[in-house]
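So, can you check this record?

>
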Amino acid sequence: FLPLSISDNPLGMLLVSPKNREKSSRGKKELAATVSHILAMSLKNAQEYHKLKELTVKDALTGVFNRKGLDNFIQKEFQRAKRYDRPLALVMIDINNFKAVNDAFGHQAGDFVLQKLARCLKHSVRRADIVARYGGDEFAILLPDTDMAKAEMLMKRVLFRLNSHVFEWNSESIKIEISSGIAASSELTNEQSEKELISKADARLYDVKRPQHLMYPVAKEG
């Protein structure tokens, strides 16, 4: 066994099995050491590449996927749903009056709310579902193999979890409300793409946010 390590940081082990039981010569040992070093460097580079690639699709503040990450997933899932005639749903979520939170408690409190909301969303969905920060205080949940009825049921579960969560900042409870819009791939024609799915969910979100609609309560004071 030869260790694969860089600067004493273990990355793995290399098993060298000679064809015969003859003792390895010094030259062979040096060759094996060189090969193990090259492999260790390759593993390290692969790990660094994976980290950098992940950073490009992850939101630095909340840890969920960013808009680029969502775009990557929705393109793949939309094509898969279309090819295999499977349902696909998208939920767009927006925090109501988020500016008031920043104005009253400061931008650090606003960041805290975004982080907590992202965590609540992730814990409310299935492992196969994709949670993303779409931009600002807007989030999206991509739901593979999910029709409109199931997506609505999932949102009830999300709201139940959020209603029981207290957003507390510096010993003060912050009242948070959200609105959501849901769209399903079954509503689209064969000629339409994932862009129309996003547009439809986004339009329903902002229709819900109109003053005549009731908002969804998320966390209560006290």
